[in-house]
Amino acid sequence: MRRVTVLVLLLACAAARAAAAVVTDGLLPNGNFEEGPPKSDLVNGTVVRGANAIPRWETSGYVEYIESGHKQGDMLLVVPQGAHAVRLGNEASIRQRLAVTRGAYYAVTFSAARTCAQAEQLNVSVSPEWGVLPMQTIYGSNGWDSYAWAFKAKMDEVALVIHNPGVEEDPACGPLIDGVAIRALYPPTLAKGNMLKNGGFEEGPYFLPNASWGVLVPPNIEDDHSPLPAWMIMSSKAVKYVDAAHFAVPQGARAVELVGGKESALVQEVRTVPGWTYRLSFTVGDARDGCAGSMVAEAYAARASIKVPYESKGTGGYKRAVLEFAAIANRTRVVFQSTFYHTMTDGSLCGPVIDDASLVGLRKKTAGRRLLL
């Protein structure tokens, strides 16, 4: 009897391993939820019955399978992409097992739309890591945003869980989830002639197909688990990661748009020698997303700072800026942020783009010079 029990357990473990999706860059299996449950597993047309009713996903709690155009009272629920999404009610979650490389870094990207609550948030976890993504601010005008969250794989097989911890009066109230994707991250090393890692922001999360709204990197992200390797988001608002396929990018294929005003700070900490002088150079521009007006991007390092004015027509363009500073400690934080909030005509939050940042040591005492090129 004991041998039979052990055999059953081994078979169960083997089945679990076989069910795990092997991670490749892009949408997870049925990550867009276009494969739906049988109609017999939908109560009242939307409520999912059974933990494994949605192919490739495991659900718990009050989960709805929503079709584009579905109405909730007088409100039309908007599906971010394609024809279907899931909605997570109070304490509901979706889960998928992933076969990953132990010790590797990954970024998860997904779209979320707020439906009826005003202070929704999502818990995202890959055991034993977890994070909280606040949804009080909707950055785009479409009713949804795409978010990125990163983790380091502690095992060869992990479970990705997106959970709604809300306690709304209506148990069905909760965010719509769509387009769940993943991308392996390769933490950048120092390039010759640049003390900043990932200064061109080329390493970052996956962009969903045809997602012309970019990807938000949420606030309070430390560099150990940042979707933008080597960079931290140290304030209360997100920054937006943009790509050359949908936006104007000054250099390379990717850049960062500062959409949170002074409430959003992009930070990297570097090793410095007290008393030495360093030169920080970077590009400021606009993303060709209709964000027009008088922008000001700020940069800080040690006791030095610079404000870079940029008159945006919202059609693309950029300028270079340089800040020289003297280090006052063994480690120095390089900080970028926008002086002002900006919005497009449709109400979407926007701001100046930062790209092609580099830092070099000069070893001379000429700090404090601010140069606009």
TrEMBL record:
The keyword Repeat does not apply. Residues 1-20 form the signal peptide. It holds the Pfam family DUF642. It comes from the Eukaryota. Keywords: Cell wall, Glycoprotein, Secreted, Signal. It is found in: Secreted, Cell wall. Residues 26-183, 195-357 form the DUF642 domain. This is DUF642 domain-containing protein. It comes from Oryza barthii.
